Amino acid sequence: MKHKACEKCVDSLGWTNVGGNSFIALVKMYLGFVGGSTALFADGIHSFGDVAGSITMLLGLKVAKNSHSNRFPYGFGKFEYIAASVIYVLLFLIGIYIFINAIHIILLKHPINPDMVTIIGALISLAANELMYRQSICAGNQLNSPSMIANAHEKRADVWSSLAVLIGIIGSKMGFHFLDPLMALVVSFFIFNICITMTYQSIKGLMDSALPKKDRETILQEIDKYSTEVELKNLRTREIGQKVSIEIEAKVKANMILENLDMIKFKLREEIMKKIEREGEVRFFFSL
User: Fold this and answer.
1) Stated pTM of the model
2) Which end of the chain has fewer beta carbons closer than 10 Å to its terminal beta carbon, N or C?
3) How many CA atoms lie within 13 A of 21 on its CB side?
4) How far, in Å, CA of 32 to CA of 18, rounded?
5) Which residues are CB-contacts of 220 (< 8 A; sequence separation ≥ 6)?
């Protein structure tokens, strides 16, 4: 955690998302049904998918916090990537349903003329999702949590989809009746785009992707401070959910006093974790 003041915000995030998405989903589905808006009703179903996503995120975070064991020496941080993948699979399936339903209405040329009350539903959804996105992305970045960031991107997709729904409703009220199902179609494309992009990020995490280039350069700079005592042979880094694993393989130079080795390891570990602002471990492999 980069800022202590963010702890309460992070702790409340999961249930805030569950409660907020449940409320939004019920409002949109009800107003979409009674108001005759296909796009708003579809967006309500989308929001129920977000409820499932938020619950999955909470489960992922709980499992990821478990300490390491003999069977899992690096801990359970990667479970967050699995949780994020589950979120996007659920969201993708919802997108397929919305896509097929919108195509069906457009091809059958059903006249859609939503009631004015549906505009209220779209506005509530837009405002609430933007607020939840801002909280989620901030918390996700603070913790470097893949599942939190995944959940945040869902909220941003919801913002754009709510805007599309609003345009569709207003367009239909102006006589362009095809706009409401067309905007439901646009919603599905927003969903597909975010699912493909973020699933790729989750797969990278599961495949032991290295830390960002900036962090690797920071680590190398810290090691270089002790170039007179040790010679770097190899540096391996990897993401493990919120945490990181750093392995430094180096050769001890002949003129080095061995008693200083523990001090170098302590200082390097302390400075590296301070500079990259992540939780995790630094392992050293020294040879003569």
Assistant:
1) 0.63
2) C
3) 28
4) 21
5) 232, 235
Q: How many CB atoms lie within 10 A of CB 59?
A: 15
* CATH superfamily of this structure's domain 4-206: Cation efflux protein transmembrane domain (1.20.1510.10)
Which residues sit opposite 250 in a β-bridge? 232, 286
Q: What is the pLDDT of residues 31-64, one digit of tens each?
A: 888 888 877 887 787 777 777 767 776 776 677 6
Of the CATH numbers 3.40.640.10, 3.40.50.970, 3.30.70.1350, 3.10.290.10, which one belongs to the domain with range 213-287?
Answer: 3.30.70.1350
Q: Measured between alpha carbons, how far is 51 from 91 in angstroms, rounded to an integer?
A: 11
Cβ–Cβ < 8 Å for 43, 126: no
Q: What angle do helix axes 146-173 and 79-108 make, rounded to 10 degrees?
A: 10
Give me the helix-helix angle, 79-108 and 38-64, nearest 10°.
170
The three-point CA angle 242-133-125 to 5° equals: 150
Distance CA 35, CA 266 (A): 65
Q: Among 52-61, 187-196, 210-219, which range has the highest average pLDDT?
A: 210-219
Helix (H) or strand (E) holding 285: strand 279-287
Distance set, CA 145 to CA 23, 77, 114, 182, 257 (Å): 25, 9, 40, 35, 41
